[in-house]
P2X purinoceptor (Xyrichtys novacula), 396 residues
Amino acid sequence: MSKSQGCCRSFLHFVFDYETTKTLVVPNLGVGCFFRFVQLLVLLYAVGYVFVVQKAYQQTDSVMSTVTTKVKGFAFTNASNMDPNFWDVADYVIPAQGLNSFFVLTNMVITPHQTQSRCPELPSPSTTCVDDCDCIEGYNNPRGNGIRTGLCENYSTTARTCEVLSWCPLEIDTKLPEHPLLAAAENFTVLIKNSVTYPKFDFHARNILTHMNSSYLKRCEFNRTTDPHCPIFRLKHMISEAGEEFQDMATKGGILGIVIDWSCDLDRWAKKCLPKYSFRRLDNKNPVNNVAPGYNFRFAKYYMTPDGVETRTLIKAYGIRFDILVFGTAGKFGIVPTLVSLGAGLSFLTLVPYVADAFMLTCVKKRQLYNRRKVEYLVEDADTEEIPMGTTYGTQ
Ligand SMILES: *[C@@H]1O[C@H](CO)[C@@H](O)[C@H](O)[C@H]1NC(C)=O
Ligand SMILES: *[C@@H]1O[C@H](CO)[C@@H](O)[C@H](O)[C@H]1NC(C)=O
Ligand SMILES: *[C@@H]1O[C@H](CO)[C@@H](O)[C@H](O)[C@H]1NC(C)=O
Ligand SMILES: *[C@@H]1O[C@H](CO)[C@@H](O)[C@H](O)[C@H]1NC(C)=O
Ligand SMILES: *[C@@H]1O[C@H](CO)[C@@H](O)[C@H](O)[C@H]1NC(C)=O
């Protein structure tokens, strides 16, 4: 038999021999129970957890939403350092409309009658001076209050500071009232109107539910136990749900998140899609290392005095910003995710025999017998034929 003939023969064997696996049946109760137990675990995972709990048979879509808000309430202030003042929505909600958020003014530092003129700087190590030589004309410190004129002036009977060109008199922002000026804001209410869409499923909803009519909306108020779907919220109630004290938060300001969760199961057997509200404080109120706490910003109201001088009232506003965060995913039965997760779950079943084999070959009493019967070592022998048995192709 020539060498090329042998080569050809083994190629034919390679192509046309049918291979089948031989099964070794192990009549051992322990191994059998272990095998079925692992199979059961895999089935429980694939069906019980992935399908029933995780709802892997659903296709999902995330929410698209729009929010509008309307705050209501009045306040009257009669503080010692300012005129008696009546406040309504147009005064304390700044700006008049915001994107998914609204700000309610609760405390402020007011500096009235500012005009563009010259006045001495507020005393600090970098602004005190002895004479005009200490003040460079035109020097502009971003942390100061204006542009220096080059003069050194009496700030008070004891302190002399550099004069600046600025809006004078300068704001003294350490005079923040210890109790919020608009303490009455705790009883203000806000109506939140929220419409959501799941575009993939062509599903639309709003947080004013179908059973709510206008007379209901006039009297209802959100309360987690008695009326969890009313879209009208008392500010104090939202802040106490977030675990905070309204008057504390109102003094220095803060940011509160109103979370609206629209997670829905849109399958026919579970069609119930209602918003769930929760509240949490979003800014840091950690008492350790809380150097610049709260939330504030400045704005001004401009007017002309009768003699034609432009004048403004500067307000450093402290208050609570309410951010409305809408999130959610909806799920609905889909054939593709069903097949994909079914395949993925069941493919774990093919791993079970390997686990059972490992158990049988290492942990069972008769493991040596099973080892001998299951694993055969190939004994290499130069005389044995490459293809030891079975039919042969070609002539002998
Ligand atoms: C404001 O308070 C002062 C005393 O602090 C009082 O005399 C005055 O009547 C108050 N004004 C109003 C409108 O209540
Ligand atoms: C500034 O204060 C000093 C002493 O306190 C006083 O002698 C001087 O007249 C004051 N200057 C002005 C312009 O008031
Ligand atoms: C808010 O309303 C409650 C009850 O209506 C009242 O007791 C409380 O004094 C009010 N808060 C303020 C700051 O006016
Ligand atoms: C609003 O709904 C309530 C029941 O929820 C009903 O008693 C009332 O008559 C309705 N009002 C109007 C104006 O439809
Ligand atoms: C919510 O309703 C319950 C039961 O009527 C009442 O006890 C509770 O004070 C209410 N909560 C608020 C914040 O109004």
